Amino acid sequence: MPRPLGWSLLTVAMFTLGQAVGQPTPTDPLKDLKDPKGPAVPAMIPKGVLPNGTMPPPATGTGTTSPSMSTDQPQWPKEILGKKLDVWTRDIRDPDPSVRENAIRTVGLFGPTAKKMAARNLIASLDDDDASCRLNAIMAVSSIGFEDVTDVRVAVNSLTRLLRYSQSIVRYHACMALGNLGPDAAPAIGDLCTYSMRDTSTWEIRRAAAFALGRIAIPDKDQPADRRAHIALANALTDPSGIVRREAMQSLLMLGRPGLPADLQVLRDRILQHAVKDKDRSVAIWARVCLMRLDPGAPNPTNITALSNLLKHKDPVVVLQATQAIGVIGPTAKQAIPDLIELLGNEEPACVTTACWALSLMGADANDAIVKLTALTKSKDEIISKAAQEAIDYITGKKKYEVPKAAKAAAVNKK
To answer: How far apart are CA 342 and CA 344, in angstroms?
Structure first.
């Protein structure tokens, strides 16, 4: 297994297409970082990206979702209930709203084929008069995506308008959909910062907005991440919700170093002042990793030891977060391998599978884990046995993590 290709690859893997993100003028003062009342915004593992361009396991909610390293492709149906995709696509425009809603829900089950055939009708449904059809269209757009650049542009415009919609559930799903569209949704950054990150109706919208900014505002080649996103996410480090603070921290990890030295210093100070000392352990964990991202010299033994010690914490959620953080750091954190091996005997299945995932990223350095992993391949828990076998395959070099082209391109932005 190859060594991680650099922190800059944390910013990609979710995206197959990227576009340059416009930057504010470098003469603008960073007053919004210092003044939460500034024009920066209302405020959703990591859904982030690993140094080698792969995705880490989820880290939101309770953190009990097991990571998956499988790349198996599903077999998509040709017909559903005797109707082909073109028929379901026509039904999206049916006069009967119940028929429309059922069609909107169904087209996504056809897989990637729906991107081209159903795209236009789904976009039109974003403005459907029926609230249920509109909401399901947002979720469908989020999961299906688009192939045509024009479709993406029109969809982003519609979703951006929905960030100000009266219903909070619509605003929430609009944030999520924009985040899943990635850098193509760059025109929405302003509204995400100005409205969604300050939305006081529910913390979930601020969380979703933080998630979206971490995937939309990422660096592109020789351009740093969008400065507005850095400001909004930094302000969110004082959000009353721990989950929002954690999501903001993970998105800052995705965005990397700000383009201006003054911004970098203020961001570092903000993380040290608030996040590292956060009462929520998971926020503090990702704050430490983010500092490593901002300072290439920070992944030192002291920082790694601090994370490794948390693998023995009594709270399984803290253990999961620390394990994921170590996996994100990769082979640079190889001193944590003995503790990861010990974690393979944990009673919590999610901790075991996450430890398998983290070990898989250590390459040959994790050879000492083979014996325990081999025993786990005989586990009655299918998820554990599969995770253990895949970890063995990556450690021994039988499998290798593939780095998306977009990830390789983003590496050019390495500071």
So the answer is: 5
